[in-house]
Amino acid sequence: MGNLNMILILLFALYFSSCFKETVFEEFPKQTRNLFINNKKCALNEDDNSFYYAISNRQRDTLSAIFTLPIDWESVTFNGQKLSNNLVTILYNLELNTPYDLKVELVSGTQKDFTIEFVNIPVFEIFTNEEIRDEEKIYSQTIINFPETNLSEPQVIISGIEIRGGTSTAYPKKSYALEFYLDSLDGERNKVSLGDLRNDDDWILDAMYIDKARMRNRVSFDIWNEMSEQSNYNAYSGSKNGIDGCFVLLFINNQLMGFYALNEKIDKKQLKIREEFNSWGGYLYKATSWGNRSVAFDSVLNYLNILSVWEVKYPKNNLNDKSHWEQLDKLIDFVVNSSDDEFKDNIHTYINIRNFADYFILLNTMQGIDNWGKNTFLYKFDENYPFHIAPWDMDGTWGRSWNSKAYNWNQIYTNSLYNRLLVTDACEFNLLIRNLWNGYRKDQLSIDSIFAHFMYYNDIINQNGLVQKENLLWEQDLNINQEITYIESWLETRLGFLDAFFNQTKPRDKFTYYGYSRFKGK
Q1: Taking Cα atoms as reference points, which of 131, 52, 134, 62 lies closest to residue 97?
Q2: Model's pTM, two decimal places?
Q3: Hey, is 462 helix, strand or coil?
Q4: What is the tens place of the pLDDT at every residue in 131-164?
């Protein structure tokens, strides 16, 4: 009888493994216990024997669940209800942020206790046999389950993962860059649709570690997307100079890492930068450091240290080729060296005034202490178009600095380009930002509209008990409800201050300015 049981177990194991890509369960020894509900894998946190399953709010009322049990489980009860392997079990009124008991009897006769918790955000599992490093992607496999997804079979994606970020690489909770492939890291990319986000192979898992609210960057991008969509200055259909994202629960090698923001990237695909105009097409630059004042338009490019301050994101043929920098060089040289009359008459040929006006408004609404030069993209659709600007890494905002310290509300953030626009009033810039501000204050930048973004993410965090998980995992003392109260108070004061600033006729000397050069004419 014992031999017969062993044969049946082996036959079941062979059948079970045939349902999946062969490499998944053989290459990664960490994948030792695989529990499925309706062909969606439950993520396991080995630290406390807890499973997590992504479920939609609709399914929580009544879930017709087919449990596929690990091969070494003889029997199991869910919250006292006996489960049958691969048969339908009806589960009612499932709560989020509630551990349900799984009492397991193993084939060996041993009793083992687990819990299972339901979440209404996507669950990411990443498996790798190597240590994840900075600046060098390693081979991994990724399993992704969205709450609304019903799978005919489990989905496994070949992936490459690395640590990403600058200062944030020193934080205990790391951010990651993730790329998807069809078969190997040397092979063809695999574009995957993730929920409502774009179809792509290149993703960011943002740890948001320094942000006491764990949402500032996402809220800022949501507002920027609304502003730029209304302005309609993107040259090509489908072009987008912001990113979308969503919260996910991340596991690496059966260890819960907390919740992350899964974000798109700003790249030539997102911006619809042309590739066929000449040998390159358009241009995309990223300001990555304060090491050179050119990022704030206060000095010309210094080719000796340019790569430590700027990145050429497109084209990428030869980063040491000075021709790649000509467009950026011309813009910065014009801002730094042109006379006031030259600047006033010609700046509109160098930049999209409406786009830069919108960014000036966003920069000051969120009070981006680390975003008035660094953490921006400058791009051209092709050589015939003026430069546009797009934001990045907006976690040091909404009342806190890049290091999470509370920050005063009573400063105006600017740089030498904006200083010259304000002083010369080129393209009637002062009237433009006044009118735009007053229009946005009735809609996208009303306190109710801004606060609705914060409450949207806060509701997700509270529903799924994500703060408790973060505090336990990373030994923090987050109180996001308290932080939201702080943001609300700060925002009320900040918006009143900005109402006075944007509606003040020139000169605006009574305000305190933060940035290089303040006001200076030529």
Answers
A1: 52
A2: 0.90
A3: helix
A4: 999 978 999 999 999 998 766 566 789 999 999 9
Q: Work out the widest C-alpha separation in the chain, in whole angstroms.
A: 96
Helix and strand tally (H, E) in the chain?
Answer: 13, 25
The tokens of 343 are what? Answer: 């600047």
- Tell me the C-alpha distance between 40 and 37, whole Å: 5
In what helix (H) or strand (E) does residue 24 lie, and over which residues does it extend? helix 22-27
d(C-alpha 459, C-alpha 465), whole Å: 10
Per-residue model confidence (pLDDT) at position 3: 47
Per the prediction, the chain carries an average pLDDT of: 87
Confidence of residue 514 (pLDDT cuts 50, 70, 90): confident
129: closest CA among 308, 254, 5? 254
Q: What angle do CA 241, 216, 95 make, to 5 degrees?
A: 110
Sequence-distant (≥ 6) Cβ neighbours of residue 514 within 8 angstroms: 369, 372, 411, 412, 413, 414
Residue 395 · residue 217 · CB < 8 Å? yes
- String of b and e for 363-372 (b: at least 16 CB within 10 Å)? bbbbbbbbbb
CA distances from 285 to 361, 413, 487 (A): 21, 21, 32
Give the tokens for residue 226: 């609304």
Nearest-angstrom CA–CA distance, 199 and 244: 12
Neighbours of 452 (CB within 10 A): 12
- Helices 416-424, 353-366: axis angle to 10 degrees equals 110
* Residues linked to residue 258 through DSSP beta bridges, in sequence order: 250
What are the backbone angles phi and psi of residue 263, rounded to the nearest 5°?
Answer: -120, 150
Placement of tokens 């997102």 in the chain = 270
Give the three-state DSSP class for 97. Answer: coil
Burial of 329 (0-12, 13-18, 19+ CB in 10 A): middle
Angle between helices 480-502 and 429-441 (to 10 degrees): 140
